[in-house]
Amino acid sequence: MMGLSSNCPVSSFFFSRNKRMFLDSCVLNQACEDQDVAKLLEVTGEKYSTFIASISLLEVGFGPRDKADIKQQQEVMELYQHTKTVNSSSIDSIDVLNSNKAGKKYLYIPEEHEWFGARHNLIKWMEQENVGGSSARKQQNDALIFMCAWNANSFLITDNVKDFLRFNVILHNEHGGHLPIFSLEDLKRSQTEEVVFPCNVKNYL
Asked: What pTM did the predictor assign?
């Protein structure tokens, strides 16, 4: 396995130091449906500790019980019952720098500043792209997951790269850093080559 890296002058330091992988809800859903995706996350999780935002409890396996995917429902119960919880205040004392990252999984609980940060990013996006509140609300879970991953000093795995990049642009303009974002395809490529953010994203910035 080669790996993932970032050449952002700000985030690359945290990226290489913390070794934390944050999963978007769509990736969790795919892992339940596709054994190859599940194996890919398992292999990558041997190098990084894995974080999942608690908002995913409303996104994974959600729907009528007779229609929602059984494996996704089981994943939610596993997250709820057996996954250790952290937040931005406790993460560094629980997932310490020199700890063994292999196989560690945490449920990340957003705090009020992350909800407020998500709100700020959504409003900023509305102003920049001249979209209405209803359009912004459709992105509110993504905005919250983004802020959780940002505050966890991690990188994000998602197959919804485009929507997350809009928040990256906003915070880059305000703070100068990037949240490294990779797709599942990037994760596959990282098994045999080095995948570097933001070089992995076409036409970004």
From this structure: 0.93
